[in-house]
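Q: Hi! First time doing this. I have a protein sequence and I read that you can turn it into a structure. Is that right? Here it is:
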Amino acid sequence: MALTAADRIREGDRLALARLITLIENDDENYQEVMDALYPYTGNAYIIGITGPPGSGKSTLVNCLAKDLKKNAEYSSGKIGIIAVDPTSPFSGGALLGDRIRMHAHTSDPNIFIRSMASRGALGGIALATDNVALAMDAAGYDPIIIETVGAGQAEVEIANLAHTTIVVEAPGLGDDVQAAKAGLLEIADILVVNKSDNQKADNTAASLERMLALGEELKEKSFGSHWKIPVLKTSAIDCTGITELTEKIYSHHRYLHESGGWDKCDLVRLSKQINELLRASLFKNWQEQLDQKSFNALMVQVMHHQVSPHQAAQILLKHNR
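A: Yes, that's right. Below is the predicted 3D structure, encoded as structure tokens:
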């Protein structure tokens, strides 16, 4: 009996997994049947999100972290999945996918699977297909799975809805303390990392982050009682300094999630978000299929001549397409 694509992926066929991911990225109608077959075998992988501003050294840090995580037999399957999301050009639609270059040391390792993905305009620092790619890697036995976001600034916080543990990477000299304090990135961090710790300003950056966290911790303790204390660690990804300490904190958070019930909450948030996105996409597709293009064009002329507002136009379209 011939093996199905789902069977081959579960047995560790990297080529079958790569082909499925390509179908997912292209939103090919054939991928969903395979994903449905794989879904009962998911839910095992520990998902670690890496985010932070450009230039903080995220890709080089992931390169070091993958080697250290693979050695941790207590928590790791020995097979590491890496999803690296690169920004897409708003003009050409292309992406450099340069993370493959930075992680070239792992390309020949059969136990590390790296997939670079273009963001394709998705907001929040991750590609729209990332959820399904992580599920496919999970079913293939990769655990943990590291997801590195685009890292385009303060708004790239969607990774917190996908990862069990979110690591925010900062670096000295990328901005003033006030800028870091107001960044939404700090609010989603489970672990804060000051990379490029050989820089003379690294100690000051770490101290500033700790002071900011201390202010927030006091408010949280008054409202919620005890909770996870966000650590601030210093690393240098060039020579992998501080990576062992980072791995220890990652698995401390892993234990905390299981002991506190946070693991199930993370999964519930991720799956609810995925279902909402699928519903939104399906409803919009159905709405577009029922849309009368001639009426739409006529309405657009009225909007262009400021006879009808965009809000009024949207209400008219919704009413006529019910």
